[in-house]
Amino acid sequence: MLPQPDFTGDPIPAYLASLAGPAPLTGPLADDLDTDIAIVGAGFAGLSAALHLAEAGIRATLIDARAIGWGASGRAFGQMAPATKLSLQELEGLLGTERAARLDAAAAQGPSLVFDLVHRYHMAAAPTTSGTLVAAHAPRKVAALRRSGQALQKRGFPVHILEGPEAQALIGSEAYELAILDERGGSVNPLGFAWGLARAAIEHGVVIHTDTPIHALRRNSTRWLLETRQGPIVRARMVIVTANAFAGRLLPELRRTIIPMRAWQAVSAPLPARLAASILPSRQTLNDTQRMPSGIRVHADGCLQVGVDGPLFSRDGAVHLAKLNKRLARLFPSIAPHLQWRETWGGWADMTADNVPHLHKLAPDLFVGVGFGGRGVAMATSMGRDLALLAQAVPETALGYPLSEPKALWYHAIARPLVTALAMRYRIEDQWDAWRFDRRRGSMSHA
């Protein structure tokens, strides 16, 4: 069995914190507590559930082992793609037509939900509504990406297929022949959004206790009992668990359903103003079709934030900054002399085998949201809203995220070597594509 991620190390990224305003004031639970609904996990899903319950006049108690947004929510790239990682057709094959349509619609509406909350509660989350870009990093990826864009256009979405100079102008790079712009997406400062959700929830009467690890969850004849490491016990009619990659620590039945994996980010010192203005000038986020992390965004202060490859299952070890530098120099040739990395950070993402999030009912009045796999800003927020609806006895068919039974992964015990081998293959494929790109560029320059 994969070892469960630990809670040590990993300070909240200083750069994101510097842009997010002051953190909400919270503290640990000191005495036993009775509450109607207890929510475990103060990330996007838990905070969203608490806020939406409070807006409906239902006050919940939110508990986290560390600080608000300490987990994946405060370390994310901040991009909001209006879709799951699977196409609608792939979702239909996995879930059936009706359930797939609900999940697809929930994912599509996720960014607008986030933007609405940010603006309604005046959050210091630096929202950017100019869309998201996906580019074909190699000629062999162009046709498939074009088909994906055409399929979205046929469904009536505001999606643009950009070719040649049009794509290159919007990205600020001559490296891409084709890109897709989806106007529905965007980005936020993820930590600022998490702290903004917390402030809004507190203003609505939600009680948040941080630095309060829950080490056991059991039920008596009428209530759930949440035992804290410090000693106090929380008694609740209903429990919602949104601990994501850490959920398996509290709920053993989930340990074999997800694969906790590390995701890494790097942020640069501010680039020269002219250079920063030339990269993604309309401030979309960019991902391309290479296999390993490829996300790029430019913040308002000219700092570059980039997804970077690194250790998949450990906090120890160096991220691959040298490889990142080569990639960025390939995309933006004038950037090399100006790249100085001011901070790197990582966090645990809760990956699922089918690449979709799951909403589970594990027992009467015990609900879990898990499996966002790196797309949690929008999807976890909308799942939090669904969890709040479940707590109000809304029918399951009215939810965007259909209820599902936890399914143990048969290969979970050997997931680490399998994923490690797959990542090595992906790295080789990406390096091969990079070599072919450099060779083609060299031949064109000598033509």
* C-alpha end-to-end distance: 55 Å
Per DSSP, the total helix count is 12
The ordered H/E elements are: HEHEEHHEHEHEEHEEEEHEHEEEHEEEHH
- Summarize model confidence as the mean pLDDT: 93
Write down how many β-strands occur, each being a DSSP E stretch of 2 or more residues: 18
- Strand composition percent: 15-25%
Structural class: alpha/beta
- Indicate the radius of gyration in whole angstroms: 22 Å
Helix residue percentage: 25-40%
The rough form would be described as: globular
Uncertain residue segments: 1-7
Describe the largest sheet. 8 strands, mixed
What labels would you give this structure?
single chain; 447 residues; alpha/beta; 8-stranded mixed beta sheet; 4-stranded mixed beta sheet; 12 helices; 18 strands; disordered N terminus
Q: How would you characterize this protein structure?
A:
By secondary structure, the protein is an alpha/beta fold. It is built from twelve helices and 18 strands. Strands 1, 2, 8, 9, 10, 11, 17 and 18 form an eight-stranded mixed beta sheet that branches. α2 links the parallel β1 and β2. The longest helix is centred in the last third of the chain and has 31 residues. The protein is globular. The chain starts with 13 loop residues before the first helix and ends with a helix. The relative contact order is 0.19. The N terminus is likely disordered.
SSE topology:
Layout: H1 14-18, E1 33-40, H2 44-55, E2 61-63, E3 79-80, H3 88-95, H4 97-120, E4 132-135, H5 142-154, E5 159-163, H6 165-171, E6 178-182, E7 186-187, H7 190-203, E8 207-209, E9 214-219, E10 224-228, E11 233-241, H8 247-250, E12 259-268, H9 273-278, E13 285-288, E14 296-298, E15 304-308, H10 321-331, E16 341-351, E17 358-363, E18 366-370, H11 376-391, H12 415-445
Parallel strand pairs: 1-2, 1-11, 2-8, 4-13, 11-18
Antiparallel strand pairs: 3-7, 4-6, 5-6, 9-10, 10-11, 12-15, 12-16, 14-15, 17-18
